[in-house]
Each structure stands twice: as structure tokens, then as C-alpha cells.
Design goal:
The complex is a heterodimer. By secondary structure, chain A is an alpha/beta fold. Helix content of chain A is 52%, strand content 9%. Chain A has four domains: 59 residues, no CATH class; 30 residues; 134 residues, no CATH class; 196 residues, BRCT domain (Rossmann fold, 3-Layer(aba) Sandwich), CATH 3.40.50. In chain A, strand 6, helix 17 and strand 7 form a beta-alpha-beta unit. In chain A, helix 5 packs antiparallel against helix 6, helix 13 runs antiparallel to helix 14 and helix 15 packs across helix 16. By secondary structure, chain B is an alpha+beta fold. Helices cover 13% and strands 31% of the residues of chain B. Chain B has nine helices and 34 strands. In chain B, the strands form nine sheets. Chain B has a five-stranded mixed β-sheet with strand order 6-7-8-9-13, with no helix packed on it. A five-stranded antiparallel β-sheet of chain B has the order 10-11-12-15-14, with no helix packed on it. Classes of the chains: A alpha/beta, B alpha+beta. Chain B: This is BOP1 N-terminal domain-containing protein. Chain B: Its main location: nucleus.
Chain lengths: 453, 597
């Protein structure tokens, strides 16, 4: 007889399956979506090699509306199967079209009651979305193209938000891929993207599990992006430059359109109007706005400054050191125009340089400047350039951009010339106390940092 | 010629020479056909031979045109023979409907009646439109995002808060994960594989440019593993103790409260011309003897640091020791294979040895028993082999002699001038021998362990060992229940004879081998000297009550002696009454370290 104690607080997985009347696959799917994981009871009363769940977690699953949806979906699948067996293909088409869909927004809200909770847990979603953004669609492994497009869209949206808010803090090129760290609403978000090369699909991976995770992560990222954009008064989804998108533009294609100034402007006007009951004022305000806009560069600069200030206060909050760091990050590459040569990973370079306040141009479609433009100050290239170097610009390898960004200084370019082995690329995620050792190059960089202050 | 067989089947003519008849009734002869060799030659010579077809009925060869070939191909593939062109249409019009009717599928009836499902859908849309709602079917596929976190509310808590455990974040990358790591993080093929688990294959190859970095083949697998970890791994909250190492240390009393202890150098005894190997202090605390490598013993007055007498020998004096008896006023010195017992009141001068003039016709090597000689007040004990140290029994009649690194221990009795070998051919080299302060016991320290013998019963009482360290020196607490042992690795081991055969405490204090340890006779002090030229003073309080542990507090590290030629300090002795420490160093001087007051 089970009395109070460990045995009443935990159940084994098979007991849970019986209780929920679910198949294992559905149970796993539900666990992934609800974020329920096994527990380790103090005493494994049913055996050492069983998986134990908390009874409360299972009760929590039992009351999930999605459970009912899954059951409906199963019976609906049976209908389709029957129609297909009868070769009633019209019916099959019709049924497929009307297949019930389920949303996961209530789960996102439930698992992350506050927005900060969601931001805190954004590392895995971003990494998985960035991975699926570059995977090929594959029928045999059951990876549909729509999912890939969706994850590509979401990762680009997040990247363009980070660029816009100058929130990127750390970049690290590792053998596994590229690590980024951004600070959004004071939360450090670290994610890993694969190198911009073709990915192979290994056979010993259950893609259904990954797709279920991606399913939840996609909807979560959608809400997070929406909230981020909405708070900044930006239009969501952002407008993509179709011409650049067709030319595989990546992040450069997502133009940041403001959520039509009229929307925010007229809202305040409307409030004023309600207060005063005067129509003329609105017209006057609009006229003033228009005049300001046509004012030209001065107005633009002021606006830019304002925007910067807003971004800094958003990411850093009240902490003065964080504010200073944010300001340094936003203006590190200010006034720099980098030309990115073909062999360098363009998306990565554009993302970093723009996040740190620089301008970019590249070879091919949509570049704002030409390669031979006189305004280009830095030429990012990865191949030896003997005899082709111009005197009026610096030639650097991509690592220079990352190292500058990590150390917040413009490192002298001499060591980073293309064709020679650059200095070691140090991880910005290592703290001196943990490692207990400082590489020589770190000491050099710290000295440069002190000089820059 | 055209054949005229008409409707007659061709097999009627198969055996005949002719084929049909002409108008005049004459037989029309068959054409002569090529045999297979000729056919073969034709296939080679004529490129368009494959187009030629023999028409048996007409008895002629037909060459197919391109159009014919195309027609045949269409027929073979089951397509309509003629491609639809204007000429075909014209051709088709010539046929009646009845002729082609079999080719056309009958239109099913359902194509002519309105769809039930469409009607239902239309009805639903119409109803929805009437209800001023956008019907489901008219909605676009794009999902409209909405705001689910309206206002930030700190009071909003998850319903599962009490048990919710967030997943652990993945490990952040290290310098070694870099595509271009610093030299010291690069793993070469020579390094043993698997030294740092999963990282070893990641940094196997080095890339000197970003463009050379290949796609990471394990990326998908690693993400999959992470997904599995997230939903299959049991999560447990482990309360890790964040304790600083300093907090674990016991609360030690401040050295200030443990005064007096030797802390500052106040006197230096200079005069020796080589390393001072051994020092000894008499029971009154007035005289100090020192033995040096310059073959001399000096006697110093402590209060004035004056050298009173110098005795010179023919060989290095390895050690010197006072006879503990207050009346004897005698000391012993070990020179080569002689033990010289001198009166301390003897005038300075050179002291002859037995070993020098007796070595030629001596029989001691054979007899193995020491030879006692007395000559104008001094006594010389001549041993079979070299002797390096003498330790006196408390009463001053017996003394034991041994060779450091040797295997034998001898006990001599001064009053009767007898000697006996008590330990012979020990397994391990002997490092130190001591009498127990008040029991008839003897402690023998070998390279590996310490033996405690009962001399009355002639039996082993205890064997103390301190792990696998090489022991170098030993000192017994005046209480008799504790002893310290110095090792070659610079460690001190404190043994409590009542407790166990393993050390009560091991202190890693010195950087190199410990050369000497000493207890103070009255005060709770002990000191150790080492080859690293430091002297360390400790407070070692032994409590009489059994429920209190011995308290050991390091007090002072003295660095007054300079290191010369890898030798630092050789010996240390406490003053019998005062908190003063004497050290004999390789820098030819003896230091007196006093307390601060």
C-alpha cells in the first residue's frame, strides 16, 4: 500500500503513460512542449533503471488542453488513413486541408510567465533556430522546408534587432561555430551558429525530437521577437528587401522600417485632440513633424543620438559601468566603412560590424558602396593580397573584427594583415579567475586597453 | 515489279519460287534476298540500315522516314500516335465520331452535378459573413503574432515555481576551442589522447585562416544531444558548498598570544672556517659547543659570544654532544671512526686520534668490538667503522653511537668502558637513534619508519610510518609521548605515540629536505631546519588531558642563514631554559635567535 512519502510523490514513466492513456511518442512530445523532465527521487522505489516523474508534473500534463488536441488529431489521422485506403483522394485532400492545428502560445506564457524568464532561457532556442536556418530540407528525415524558412526568418529578425539596438557584446570563432553574446534587457544571451558552410544530416539523429523542440522554440521566438520589436515601436514582421533576399542577402535584406511614424505620432495627437477638442493642433503638429523631417542631416543626427541613448538605457539599465560598456560597443566602429571580400563570411561580418556601429559594403548585389570607393577605410579579406593593396585603407582578416569587438579597442592592424598567421584568437567567455592563467596575448591586449582609456 | 497476290495469305507462297501472277498469267518470280553475311556487311557500310524494313507481303524493302520513326516511337510509348498539329486536326475531322468514340473516357456524372462539400463551404462562409466574422476559409495562412507578455509584473509567478528547475546552461567555450588557439592550448598528436575528454578531437587540427575552417560535422549531433539532455535527463538541485579554503582551516591563535618564542636574530658566533655541522648546549645553558667541517670543535660562552677554546682534530668532526650528567662536564665528539670524550675544561689544542696511528696494526677490524683508550683526561673509543653521531642517555652513563645511513647501533657505558652492539644489520639505513626521556626505550629512525624498542624486554613495541616518504631526522618531546620526524621532501610529521602508528599531523613546511628538528625542554616550542636555508619555529602544545588534541601553530620562518652550495642549516638546538634557538648553518656561523623582549 502506498502511503505518504517518496512513492506517492513520484511515478515511473510507464505508470504515467497508463495514467495519461498516451503512446510513448505522444508523451515525449508533450513533455518537450511542456518542459517536463524526469526527477531523481531520493529512493528509487521501483528499481534503479527506471525513469521517475513527479506526480504533480504528470497531473499537470493530465490537465493540458493539448492532450485533448492530440487525441483529436489521432482520430483525425485515422480518418485520413481510411480515406486514403479507399482511394478517395479528393476526400484526403479536403481532410488534409482542414486538419486541426494547435497553437503553443498558452504554453509559452505558462512556461515563461514573465518576459525576462523567456529571455533568460533564449540560448537553446536561438542556437537551434540558427542551426535549422542552414539545414537542407529533407523528405527522408522529415524536415519540411516551411520550418526551415520560419527558423531562418526568426533568427534573422533577432539578429537585426540586436544590430539595431547595438546589443552584441562578445563574438568568438571556435572550431564548432561562432558564439555570440548579446545583452537584451540586461540578460546575457549566448548562442552558437554553425559556420556558413553546407551542413550534412547525420543518420543517427532522431529529427522528430529536434523538430518538436523547434516547434516550441519557433513559437516562443516569434512572441519574443514581437515583444522586442513592439517595445521599440518597430514594425513586425520587419520588411525584407526582396531584391536582396533573392540574392541570398541574409541579414542585410531585413530593412528596419519604423512602424509608420504616423501610428505613434497620431496616437499622442489624438489624445491631445480628445483633451482640447481642437482639430487645428493636429495639423500643426503634423506640419512641424514634416518640417523637422525635411530639416536634413542635423535632425537625423539628433534622432540617431536619441535612438542610441534609448538602446543603451534599454540594454544596460541603470548600471553605470554597463551603460559605459554599451556606449562603447555602439560607437566602437563609428566612422568605419568596411569592405567585405567574397571569401569572408558576409552575414557574420555584417552582423558584427553593424552592431558595433560601423558601415559595411560588399561585392555584389545591394552594396551601398563600391569596392574601389574612396570612403572605404578597412578591407576585410582572408586571402593573401600581395600587390593588390591600396595605401589608403587597412587590410585585415576577419579575426580582427572579432578581437576588436571583444576587447572594445581598435587593435593595430599590422598583426592582422592577410597572408600572415594572425595572433591567437582568445575566448572572451573565459574569466581570469576560472582559468587561473593569462595567455601572453591577453596581457598585450589588456595593455592596449589601458592605453585606450 | 509489284506483286499481285491480292488477298491470298503470304504463307501460301512461302515454299514457292514465285509470288503472284501478272496480267498475262505468268509467274512473277521472287526477288533474291541477301544472305546474312551480306546483311552484316550492309549494317556496317550503310549508316541508315536500321531504317530499312522488309515488307514480306509487298516483297520490297521500305526505308522509314523520320516521321515514320517518330510515329513508331509514340505508339510504342503508348501515346497518341499523332502529335496534335493542324494537319492532324484536319485528318481527325475526316473520321466520324463513331470511329474515335472508344478513345474518349466517359465524363463521370459527378463532374456535372454541384459539389456537396463546396456547397457546404459556401453556406458556411455566407453564414459567417452574415455574422460579420472573417470565415476560417478566407483567412490567410500567416500566423498573426500577438503580445502575450502584456505588462511586466513582478508578482506574476509560475504555477510550478516550487519544483521548477531551470536547465543547466551549456558550457561556455574556452581558449582551447578557438579556431586559432594560443600556442599553449594547442593539442599535438604526441599528447596522450583522451586527456581532456571530448575536447581532444575539436582542436586536433590547427587553422591559420578562417577560410580554412571546415564545417563542424558534429554540430547536429551535439544539438540533438542537448535536446535529449533537456527532456530526458533527471534534474536535481545539488547544494554545492561554496566554502573558501581559508574558512576550512581551524581557528589558530595569533602568534602574538603564544610568546615567548625565538623571532629575531641577536647574536652571531663567527670563527669557524667551514660549515658548522653540529652544535650542542650544556645543561646550564652557559656553554655552546660547535663541530665544523674545518676539523675543529669550538666552545663558546653564550652570554658574550666569545670563543673560549678550540680543539683541533685530524678529520672532520661530524657531531658533538654534551654528556647530560651535570657533574661530568664532558662532551663527546665523533671524528672518523673514533668517539672522543673530552673534558670541557681542557685547554685548547690539537687532540690526537686513535684511528690515525693505530690503523696500521689494529685488530679492531677483526674483533668488531670497540677499543677504549684513556689518555690524559680524554677517552677515545675506537670503532670498527665510521661513526657519525652519538646520543646520550639522560643519566649520562650510557650513550649510543651509529652511522647515518649505516645498519648498526652500539651502546657504550662510560663508567665501565664497555660497548655492545645492540642492533645489527638493520634492513633499512638508520637515520637517527634516541633514548626515551624516562622509559627504558629506544627509538630508531630508519629511512622508512621509526621503531620503538623496549631495551629491558628486548622487544619491538611500535612501528611508526608516515607513508612512503624518506625520513631524515627525529626529535622526541620531553614528555616522551610525542615525536616529530623530518623528511627528505621537506615535510614534518608529528606522531602521538598514544594515538596511532600514523602521523597525527603532517606539515608541508620546507621546500627541501629537513636537516634537523628540536624540541624545547621546558616551553611548548619546536623548530625545524632545512636545506632551503630556513628555520621554522612552531608552537606545539601537548595537553595532559586526553580529551584535548595537541595544538600545533606555525610561529615564525627565519631566513637569517644564506644558502650556500645547496646546503642551508644543519642543526638547531634550543636553550635549556630561555626561548632561544641556536642554528648551525653552512655559512660558517652559528646564530642565536632570541625572543622579541
Amino acid at each position: 500500500k502506498v502511503k505518504g512519502g517518496i512513492a506517492s510523490r513520484y511515478t515511473t514513466r510507464n505508470q504515467a503513460l497508463n495514467r495519461l492513456q498516451l503512446k510513448l511518442a505522444d508523451f515525449r512530445r508533450l513533455c518537450i512542449l511542456k518542459g517536463i523532465h524526469p526527477r531523481e527521487p531520493k529512493k528509487k522505489f521501483k528499481g534503479q533503471h527506471k525513469t521517475y516523474y513527479h506526480v504533480k508534473d504528470i497531473n499537470f500534463l493530465a490537465h493540458e488542453p493539448l492532450l485533448e488536441k492530440f487525441r483529436d488529431l489521432r482520430s483525425y489521422e485515422r480518418k485520413i488513413k481510411r480515406a486514403r485506403a479507399k482511394k478517395a483522394y479528393h476526400a484526403v485532400d479536403r481532410l488534409e486541408e482542414k486538419k486541426p492545428k494547435y497553437g503553443l502560445d498558452h504554453l509559452v506564457k505558462e512556461r515563461y510567465p514573465t518576459f525576462l524568464d523567456a529571455l533568460r532561457d533564449l540560448d537553446d532556442p536561438l542556437t537551434l533556430a540558427h542551426l535549422f536556418a542552414v539545414l537542407p530540407a529533407d523528405k527522408r528525415h522529415g524536415i519540411p522546408a516551411e520550418v526551415l524558412l520560419e527558423s531562418r526568418k526568426l533568427s534573422l529578425e533577432f539578429q537585426s534587432y540586436v544590430t539595431k539596438m547595438h546589443a552584441l557584446r562578445k563574438v568568438f570563432i571556435s572550431v564548432k561555430g561562432i558564439y555570440y553574446q548579446a545583452v537584451v534587457h540586461g540578460q546575457e544571451i549566448t548562442w552558437l551558429t554553425p559556420h556558413a558552410l553546407a551542413q550534412t544530416l547525420p543518420e543517427d539523429v532522431d529529427y522528430r525530437v529536434m523538430l518538436t523542440f523547434l516547434d516550441f522554440y519557433t513559437s516562443m521566438l516569434g512572441f519574443v521577437n514581437y515583444k522586442l520589436y513592439f517595445d521599440q515601436g518597430l514594425r513586425y514582421p520587419p520588411v525584407l528587401d526582396t531584391r536582396l533576399e533573392d540574392a541570398a542577402g541574409g541579414i542585410v535584406a531585413s530593412a528596419q522600417a519604423k512602424l509608420t511614424e504616423s501610428r505613434l505620432a497620431t496616437l499622442s495627437d489624438k489624445l491631445a485632440q480628445i483633451g482640447d477638442g481642437e482639430v487645428d493642433e493636429e495639423a500643426e503638429a503634423e506640419a512641424a513633424l514634416r518640417a523637422e523631417r525635411s530639416d536634413g542631416e542635423d535632425g537625423d543626427d539628433v534622432e540617431e543620438e536619441d535612438e542610441l541613448e534609448r538602446a543603451i538605457s534599454l540594454s544596460a539599465g541603470g548600471d553605470p559601468t554597463a551603460r559605459e560598456d554599451a556606449k562603447l560597443c555602439a560607437t566602437l566602429f563609428k566612422g568605419m566603412v568596411c569592405f567585405i571580400q567574397r571569401e569572408c563570411p558576409r552575414d557574420m561580418m555584417v552582423f558584427i560590424i553593424r552592431s558595433f556601429g560601423g558601415e559595411v559594403c560588399w561585392e555584389g548585389e545591394g552594396s551601398p558602396y563600391d569596392e574601389s570607393d574612396g570612403g572605404v577605410t578597412h578591407h576585410v579579406c582572408d586571402r593573401p593580397m600581395e600587390g593588390k593593396m591600396l595605401a589608403q585603407r587597412e587590410y585585415v582578416v576577419p579575426q580582427w573584427v572579432c578581437d576588436c569587438a571583444n576587447w572594445r579597442i581598435l587593435i593595430p592592424c599590422a598583426d592582422y594583415r592577410p597572408g600572415i598567421v594572425p595572433p591567437p584568437h582568445l575566448s572572451p567567455f573565459v574569466s581570469k579567475d576560472d582559468e587561473g592563467y593569462t595567455p601572453d596575448y591577453q596581457a598585450t591586449l589588456e595593455k592596449l586597453q589601458m592605453q585606450a582609456k | 515489279m509489284e506483286n499481285t497476290t491480292g488477298d491470298a495469305p503470304s504463307e501460301w507462297y512461302r515454299e514457292e519460287e514465285h509470288i503472284g501472277y501478272d496480267v498475262d498469267g505468268r509467274r512473277i518470280s521472287k526477288r533474291r534476298w541477301n544472305d546474312s553475311i551480306e546483311n552484316l556487311l550492309h549494317t556496317i557500310d550503310d549508316p541508315s540500315y536500321w531504317r530499312k524494313v522488309f515488307d514480306e507481303k509487298e516483297d520490297r524493302e521500305i526505308s522509314l522516314s523520320r516521321a515514320h520513326v517518330e510515329l513508331i516511337q509514340r505508339l510504342r510509348s503508348g501515346a497518341f500516335p499523332k502529335s496534335s498539329s493542324s494537319s492532324d486536326l484536319k485528318h481527325e475531322q475526316n473520321h466520324g465520331i463513331a470511329e474515335v468514340a472508344w478513345q474518349i473516357n466517359h465524363e463521370p456524372k459527378r463532374r456535372f452535378i454541384p459539389s456537396k462539400w463546396e456547397a457546404k463551404l459556401v453556406l458556411r462562409i455566407v453564414r459567417a459573413l452574415r455574422a460579420h466574422a472573417t470565415p476560417n476559409a478566407l483567412q490567410s495562412n500567416t500566423v498573426e503574432q500577438k503580445m502575450i507578455w502584456e505588462a511586466e509584473d513582478a508578482s506574476q509567478r509560475s504555477t510550478r515555481d516550487h519544483t521548477y528547475l531551470p536547465a543547466q546552461k551549456p558550457k561556455k567555450p574556452n581558449h582551447a576551442d578557438s579556431y586559432n588557439p594560443p600556442f599553449e592550448y594547442q593539442i599535438n598528436d604526441e599528447d596522450a589522447p583522451g586527456t581532456n575528454g571530448h575536447d581532444n578531437h575539436a582542436t586536433r587540427t590547427l587553422f591559420n585562416a578562417l577560410r580554412r575552417v571546415p564545417s563542424y560535422s558534429e554540430f547536429v549531433v551535439e544539438r540533438f544531444q542537448r535536446c535529449l539532455d533537456l527532456y530526458l535527463c533527471p534534474r536535481v538541485k545539488k547544494h554545492r558548498l561554496h566554502v573558501r579554503p581559508q574558512d576550512i582551516l581551524p581557528p589558530l591563535p595569533s602568534p602574538k598570544d603564544l610568546k615567548p618564542f625565538p623571532s629575531s636574530n641577536c647574536l652571531k658566533f663567527t670563527g669557524h672556517e667551514d660549515k658548522v655541522l653540529s652544535i650542542a648546549i650544556d645543561h646550564s645553558g652557559q656553554w655552546l659547543l660547535s663541530a665544523s667541517e674545518d676539523c675543529s670543535i669550538r666552545k663558546w660562552e653564550i652570554s658574550s659570544s666569545r670563543c673560549i677554546s678550540v680543539w683541533r682534530f685530524r678529520d672532520i668532526v661530524k657531531s658533538v654532544a654534551w654528556c647530560p650528567s651535570p657533574m661530568a662536564n664532558t662532551f663527546s665528539a665523533c671524528v672518523a671512526s673514533d668517539i672522543v670524550l673530552l673534558k670541557s675544561t681542557r685547554a685548547s689544542g690539537s687532540v690526537p686520534l686513535l684511528s690515525s696511528h693505530h690503523s696500521v696494526h689494529s685488530k679492531v677490524e677483526n674483533s668488531k668490538l670497540p677499543e677504549w683508550k684513556e689518555r690524559d683526561g680524554e677517552m677515545i673509543v675506537h670503532l670498527a667503522s665510521d661513526v657519525s653521531k652519538v646520543t646520550w642517555h639522560k643519566k649520562g652513563d650510557y650513550f649510543a653511537s651509529f652511522m647515518i645511513g649505516g645498519n648498526n647501533v652500539m651502546i657504550h657505558r662510560m663508567s665501565r668502558r664497555t660497548s655492545q652492539l645492540i642492533f645489527r644489520d638493520q634492513k633499512f639505513p638508520i637515520q637517527s637513534v634516541m633514548f626515551h626521556p624516562y622509559r627504558p626505550f629506544m627509538l630508531i629512525c630508519t629511512r622508512t619508519c621509526v621503531y620503538l624498542y623496549d631495551l629491558n624486554k628486548q622487544s619491538l613495541i611500535k612501528k611508526l610510518s608516515s607513508g612512503n616518504q624518506t625520513l631524515s631526522c627525529m626529535a622526541v618531546h620531553p614528555g616522551g609521548d610525542n615525536l616529530i620526524i623530518g623528511t627528505d621532501l621537506g615535510r614534518l610529521a608529528w606522531f602521538d605515540l598514544d594515538l596511532a602508528t600514523s602521523p597525527y599531523k603532517v606539515m608541508a613546511t620546507h621546500a627541501s629536505a629537513v636537516k634537523g628538528v628540536a624540541f624545547h625542554a621546558k616551553l611548548p616550542l619546536f623548530a625545524s631546519v632545512s636545506d632551503d636555508a630556513t628555520t621554522q619555529v612552531f608552537h606545539g602544545m601537548v595537553h595532559a588531558e586526553l580529551d584535548q588534541n595537541t595544538l600545533i601553530v606555525p610561529l615564525k620562518i627565519l631566513r637569517y642563514t644564506s644558502e650556500s652550495n645547496c646546503d642551508g642549516v644543519f642543526d638547531c638546538v634550543f636553550h635549556p631554559t630561555q626561548p632561544w634557538l641556536f642554528t648551525a648553518g653552512a655559512d660558517r656561523s652559528i646564530l642565536l635567535v632570541c625572543d622579541d623582549n
